[in-house]
Amino acid sequence: xxxxxxxxxxxxxxxxxxxxxxxxxxxxxxxxxxxxxxxxxxxxxxxxxxxxxxxxxxxxxxxxxxxxxxxxxxxxxxxxxxxxxxxxxxxxxxxxxxxxxxxxxxxxxxxxxxxxxxxxxxxxxxxxxxxxxxxxxxxxxxxxxxxxxxxxxxxxxxxxxxxxxxxxxxxxxxxxxxxxxxxxxxxxxxxxxxxxxxxxxxxxxxxxx
Length: 209
Prior knowledge:
Elements: E1 4-9, H1 11-21, H2 26-37, E2 40-47, H3 52-55, E3 72-73, E4 79-80, H4 87-100, E5 105-110, E6 126-129, E7 132-137, H5 143-153, E8 160-164, H6 178-185, E9 188-195, E10 200-206
Antiparallel strand pairs: 1-2, 2-10, 3-4, 5-7, 5-8, 6-7, 8-9, 9-10
Helix pairs in contact: 2-6, 4-5
């Protein structure tokens, strides 16, 4: 695993999180409301050698070193370099928070598909709220389930996961009401937002009521 450090962010980080949650879906709107009502700490996980300039450039890539060993030369002569990411650290953070706060759950939003396009025989973590798609994860899920959900939910421009104290009620058709999802979101303890052009994330953690 890449050597990394936890970096506490100031107002710039909080502004990024607020903007990331604004005008996206039902879940993010409720998370934004929770952020406005509760004190919290904003932070990120970055490589040990990342500079301050790189760390506050939330909308830009280049946070991680390129892995040239995995590069592929395309027919036109250009070189495609695989994008590294901090997803392993993100999974560790989410699972660690679930482990230390029993009864909590993790919801990952997935803004790309519509629920009517999703096969109910597919990923068992998926559930729908109207046409919106989400993943519900708990302490018993393994690393692979978290990796799959975060990868599905990472649209580069957007991707949110949240640890919540309350679990939403989901019916037999794997549907949840908007009110239930909002109730869950308002109990958020920690959330992460995709950042650095998909290479990393910025997180918010509730510090008081």
